[in-house]
């Protein structure tokens, strides 16, 4: 790649922790340079095998309100909402972004990601309902790096017991790292909006626990 993945120090805003009780979430506002973010946004639209999956909700088939693509190491089969996905191969773009996220995790959250779920929110009518990333394959207290490319969208955390909410707008080129007991205590989601907005690609890098054969 002929450009820098990271923003120059003069442009970079400092990362900060979100004020979540019983949560451990760090936001890097512009972790990727604008040039890299723009390029990745175009590349991923073109190169990933996007599809719109169907899940069963209250016994009825419902189309997921976004496109998605699952990628990872060969044995990283992933199941959520009774939907099982076999991994597509890594692309060069995904590997480049994965390395960036692993650098950002640093010494605090030493993590090597082996899989990523790509979601393409085509417009304001595409959304993600409240959920926790707490599937057994992710283990206890998983570290998840969420990358935003394209349109900024409000990302809402809601405490499972107190119902307290916190909204963080995820910007183009940003990375959000969720760690510790965040998934145990919070659900998160992205609501629909009637505003005419552009598309957003979100990448959530994870480490799946390999099952012994």
Could you explain the architecture of this structure?
- By secondary structure, this protein is of the alpha+beta class.
- The chain contains three helices and 15 strands.
- The chain has a seven-stranded antiparallel β-sheet. The protein has a four-stranded antiparallel β-sheet with strand order 9-14-11-12. The chain has a two-stranded antiparallel sheet with strand order 3-4.
- The longest helix is centred in the N-terminal third of the chain and has 14 residues, at 34-47.
- The N and C termini lie far apart (38 Å).
- The model has no long low-confidence stretch (mean pLDDT 91).
Question: What is the secondary structure topology, with strand pairs?
Answer:
Layout: E1 16-17, E2 24-28, H1 34-47, E3 54-57, E4 60-63, E5 67-72, E6 78-80, E7 83-85, H2 92-105, E8 115-121, E9 128-131, E10 144-150, E11 153-159, E12 165-170, E13 175-179, H3 182-185, E14 186-190, E15 200-206
Antiparallel strand pairs: 1-2, 2-13, 3-4, 5-8, 6-7, 8-15, 9-14, 10-13, 10-15, 11-12, 11-14
Give the gist of this structure.
The chain is of the alpha+beta class. Helix content is 15%, strand content 35%.
